[in-house]
Design a protein that fits this description.
The chain is globular. By secondary structure, it is an alpha/beta fold. The chain starts with a strand and ends in a 6-residue tail after the last helix. A hairpin with a 2-residue loop joins β5 and β6.
């Protein structure tokens, strides 16, 4: 079971025992709002400098030995130049930061207050930005794993001799999908939980060995089993949300990010664009 706290980090940074109480109650991971590394980014997006809050939050998460995902609202002209530095920051803190989620900023009927004429990035453009700024080999993101291919993409990136090597580039689509099987989400959550847990759970599976053999080139010439199993990795996600005038039924139907309400379950984009503020309009 994965119980995740979605937070802006303010309370984590101020209350020393807050996170430990949550861990005692069953918390397993943290999804931390993290817009960038520069003061100007936070002042523009959040109205105040939040860099110290983010640093203290990550320190608190580390002290509880939890995993965290950094959530970045990629905003054109504000923090879209920081993506590479954010990836490098995540790698520097890889003991705690297991994943980075780059999501294109969306207005969602008035919630986007920076520039009403500003539009977010389509998924392909967002991926190109991440790869170019992070110096990751192109072609390492897969958009066929979760949800609609225009909505979500992910990459499992290994750090090999200082270079960022995306595993999926070295695999055929058939091999990857055959390995992930029907329960893709469970394997991804296990990857997020850490290398040791993942290998303990899946290394006995012949499919895992076939996958590693096919991707052996990522680990250099004639890699040893030890070097393969000890290689560090980080998960990168890219998301592009729909806005009211770009909602597409097929994407809504394949959405795997849902909002549960008393009257039903809604697609994330459909709910935020059509229902969330209807009482105010």
């Amino acid at each position: 079971t994965n119980i995740e706290l979605v937070t802006n980090g303010i309370r984590l940074s101020r209350e020393k025992d807050y996170l430990s109480r949550l861990v005692e109650a069953g918390l397993t991971s943290v999804y931390l709002q993290f817009d960038g590394l520069e003061k100007n980014t936070y002042e523009t997006i959040r109205g105040q400098d939040m860099t110290e809050v983010r640093e203290k939050s990550i320190a608190a998460i580390r002290s509880e030995q939890l995993c965290c995902t950094l959530a970045i609202a990629v905003t054109p002209g504000v923090n879209d130049h920081e993506l590479g530095n954010i990836v490098r920051f995540g790698i520097t803190n890889i003991d705690t930061v297991r994943a980075i989620n780059f999501q294109s900023a969306a207005r969602f009927t008035g919630r986007f207050e920076i520039n009403e004429s500003c539009t977010g990035y389509p998924l392909s453009s967002l991926i190109q930005l991440i790869e170019a700024q992070s110096h990751i080999e192109e072609g390492g993101f897969s958009s066929d794993i979760l949800g609609h291919p225009q909505c979500n993409a992910m990459s499992l990136v290994y750090i090999i001799d200082g270079a960022l090597k995306p595993l999926f580039k070295y695999l055929t689509d058939d091999r990857l999908m055959n390995y992930l099987g029907k329960d893709k989400r469970t394997k991804i959550l296990d990857l997020f939980s850490g290398r040791d847990r993942f290998y303990r759970k899946y290394l006995a599976d012949p499919k895992a060995w076939k996958l590693l053999i096919e991707a052996a080139a990522i680990f250099g010439n004639r890699p040893s089993l030890t070097s393969i199993l000890s290689a560090r990795h980080i998960l990168l996600f890219a998301k592009s949300f729909m806005e009211k005038d770009t909602l597409q039924p097929d994407r809504v139907e394949q959405c795997n990010y849902a909002i549960a309400k008393t009257d039903g379950v809604y697609s994330f984009c459909a709910y935020n664009n059509l229902y969330r503020f209807e009482s105010k309009n």
